[in-house]
Design a protein that fits this description.
single chain; 304 residues; mainly alpha; 12 helices
């Protein structure tokens, strides 16, 4: 009987992990395509304005999703508790990241975003009292060395927006930690709606100060497509973080680098230089080690 129950639990966990992995990979693909579309549109539109227009479209799409899943009665929770805190942290992080993205190659911006697992491990050690061994601290340090190779602060043509991108990544790492604070009973669609609303309100306020510019059908179509991918990315990242083991699902965040390399080369012809390639490799290896060591730590503390 115990064996049967244990087998059933293992099967359920494997199923949850597969679901989380699929949603994480899909979410990263959606985010990269969305980033590419808004980056292209930013060539002819003010930054805050395009984020605001895309935000309105994404919010409407998520509202339809909320209604279709029967979660409409829970929409009041977007303004309460950890849902609201998470949404506003996400909004500021998203806005900051996008401003940086408009001035960086998409591969570089995506690579910097991949520091999130390292930042999460560091924040958990500093603010949540989680024990981090010497090897994990070494991985975190090497990961940030990889970021320096990507940013290349002393290289000719250094782009200071790389630092803005890193700050946006820090905020999004805080967002991921806050996701676990949201009560399990809150539907993922409601959390997604809260984020979409917060981004729209923030960008709308900035746009009112920045000014409005007329735009054409082409830009509108780009933002409409971007909003679809954005809504899909929002939903996928929430579901991916809430199902299965984070230590198993986390590494698949790095699938975003593959998406970014393909899209960046296909659309803009961007390829990292030698130092940046080394930095991407070092960052990815460090992040994977941190996630793997977290899994080993969790296994050691699991009741036998």
């Amino acid at each position: 009987m115990t064996t049967a129950i244990g087998t059933a639990d293992t099967a359920a966990l494997l199923k949850a992990n597969r679901r989380g992995i699929l949603f994480m990979c899909a979410a990263m693909g959606c985010f990269v395509v969305n980033d590419s579309l808004v980056k292209y549109a930013s060539q002819s539109m003010p930054s805050a304005q395009l984020i605001f227009i895309r935000g309105i479209m994404a919010t409407l799409l998520v509202l339809l999703l909320v209604r279709s899943t029967g979660a409409a009665r829970r929409t009041g929770e977007v303004m309460r508790g950890w849902v609201a805190v998470r949404a506003w942290v996400d909004a500021v992080g998203t806005f900051t990241y996008l401003i940086a993205l408009f001035h960086l190659p998409i591969v570089n911006a995506t690579a910097i975003m991949m520091t999130s697992p390292l930042i999460i491990a560091m924040l958990a050690a500093i603010f949540m009292g989680e024990r981090v061994g010497a090897s994990r601290w070494m991985a975190i340090v090497l990961g940030f060395l990889g970021v320096l190779l990507i940013i290349q602060p002393r290289a000719e043509g250094f782009n200071a927006y790389s630092l803005v991108c890193l700050f946006g990544t820090l905020l999004m790492s805080v967002r991921d930690l806050l996701t676990r604070r949201v009560p399990a009973g809150v539907p993922s669609t409601v959390i997604t709606l809260a984020t979409a609303l917060a981004v729209t309100l923030l960008s709308g306020g900035v746009s009112a100060v920045e000014g409005w510019q007329a735009f054409g059908v082409f830009e509108f179509a780009l933002l409409a497509m971007a909003s679809v991918f954005l809504a899909g990315g929002y939903y996928g990242i929430v579901v991916g973080m809430r199902h299965g083991e984070m230590s198993v699902i986390g590494p698949f965040r790095y699938s975003g680098l593959i998406w970014a390399l393909v899209v960046g080369f296909a659309v803009w012809g961007d390829l990292p230089n030698t130092l940046a390639w080394l930095g991407i490799g070092l960052l990815t290896a460090s992040g994977l080690y941190v996630v793997y060591s977290e899994r080993l730590r969790a296994d050691r503390h699991q009741p036998q």
